[in-house]
Amino acid sequence: MSYFRFPCPLGESDMLDYHKDDHDALTERFRKTLYYGKMPNTERPSLPLTDIAVELFQERAPRKLGKIDQYMVAAASRENCISPSTMMMGMIYTNRLRTKNPEYLQQISSSDLFLISMMMASKFMYDEGVDEEVFNDEWADSVDMETEEINQMEREFLSAIDWNLFVSDKEFGKVLHNIETRIALQNGIDRGWFTYTDLLVLSHDAKFSPLVRKISKVWYNI
């Protein structure tokens, strides 16, 4: 059995400076740990990641009107090619807003917050001219909004977050690890058994590594 090596450190450790091979390895990591299955050309989030995103954005923006749901996340992700990395960045932005500008979160719906967070994460990650870039009018069309509405949401979002869109490797790695751990634990409990990848994810978490070591000893003694 081949050993699946994570292409970057977990938890609070810095991630690697990726080149093409590293990008491919990270894509494979996402496929395994986030339960994407076969990564499609037009990327869509896995069901576990979709559920986490819906819960997070509903919690951050509790307004009942315009409430986000699984269908909206899946549809927006499909139409705008939202990658796993973009999803992580958008979640990080909402966490910043909770600390920096909680008043903003009381005024915006969770569906609008998801949309604008993903749009800003995508625009920050991808330079002009690359295939993954999606323009404001395309984002507007994907959710049946006017481009000027999207432009206004963008201005308000940037003002609320104080134009702070940069995410360090360490911050990204920590959020990714937390989400991977939650998905591994929840899916293992739901199934009644853990995959090799689930156990590998949990082994990098101080809370679960002793349990994983015990399971490994039993495994190798069979």
Any overview of this molecule?
With 222 residues, the chain is mainly α. The chain contains eleven helices and no strands. The protein has helices spanning 20-33, 47-60, 70-80, 84-100, 102-107, 110-125, 136-142, 147-160, 169-191, 196-203, 209-221. Helix 2 (47-60) runs parallel beside helix 4 (84-100). The longest helix has 23 residues, at 169-191.
Mean pLDDT: 81
Percent range for β-strand residues: under 5%
Percentage of helical residues? 55-70%
Rg from alpha-carbon coordinates? 18 Å
Task: Give me the number of helical elements.
Answer: 11
| SSE succession | HHHHHHHHHHH
Low-confidence stretches: 1-20
Distance between the termini: 15 Å
- Compute the number of strand runs: 0
Family: Belongs to the CNPPD1 family.
InterPro entries: Cyclin-like_sf (IPR036915), Cyclin_N (IPR006671), Cyclin_PHO80-like (IPR013922)
GO molecular function: cyclin-dependent protein serine/threonine kinase regulator activity; protein kinase binding
Protein name: Protein CNPPD1
Put the structure in a nutshell:
This protein has helices at 20-33, 47-60, 70-80, 84-100, 102-107, 110-125, 136-142, 147-160, 169-191, 196-203, 209-221. It is mainly alpha-helical.
Secondary-structure blueprint:
Elements: H1 20-33, H2 47-60, H3 70-80, H4 84-100, H5 102-107, H6 110-125, H7 136-142, H8 147-160, H9 169-191, H10 196-203, H11 209-221
Domain Cyclin N-terminal: 71-165
GO cellular component, one term: cyclin-dependent protein kinase holoenzyme complex
Protein name: Protein CNPPD1
